[in-house]
Structures are given as structure tokens and as C-alpha cells.
Amino acid sequence: MNKEIGNSKLKNGYAHVLLVDDEEYLVKLWKRVIESRGYKVTSYTSGLEALEDFRDRPDDFDIVITDQSMPEITGFELAKEILKIRSDVKLILCSGYLGDIDLNNEMNKKIDVFLQKPFDKNTLIEAIESVLIDR
Hints:
5 helices; globular; 5-stranded parallel beta sheet; single chain; Rossmann fold; alpha/beta
């Protein structure tokens, strides 16, 4: 189920987040923000390395946050491969341009939240907490 992020009350919580973006500065920033809310974060600037880690320990992760535009593998491709391994993992896809996303596409229906870049730290945390509440 896709959700739009609104102004909900933020709560601290625990979950293990797999964070993937090819922009190192964004990974560092988002990791710091997410960890400040009590979540464990494993981060990668390589989608292929993130996928390898997920394959090695799929039950360790509660949520995957990935950028769409990455050089080795797109966020959609990464999400598709992750869902083949574990169909119940929560997915947040981030992109600078969401205009081409067809919400009726079967793969897109499996993404829990779409975030359009740039977004602020509260929007990121709200997205994480909105999908974790539905667990």
C-alpha cells in the first residue's frame, strides 16, 4: 500500500534499516538522522553490495531505503531482487523525479513509500515510521 507522508507525531523506535544511495554525502546525512531516532542503519553507496548483504542476512533488515538513480542497479531493480528474497520487507524509494512512476504498475504497488528528493529529516523519519507501524 502506498502512502503519502503527512504531519504525524514522530516517535523513537527500533528497526534495522538498509540504506542505499550512490551519493556518499546523502548516505552519511541520512544515516546520522535515522540513527539519532534510535534505529540501526547499515548503509551502502553501491546497490550491488547492498543486495549482496541482504542476500547474506535477509532477516536482519526491517526496512530498505533506496535511491532510484544509481549507476550499477536502479532502486526499482534492487527492490525487485530484494522482494524475491523476502517479500515482506518494507521499501522506501527515493528519487529526484517521481513523475514517471505509474502507481498501477505491479512492482510500484510493492513500494511502501515514494519520497521525492529533496526532503527534510522529518519527512524521512515519518516515512520510516509509517511503514513500520504497518508491520
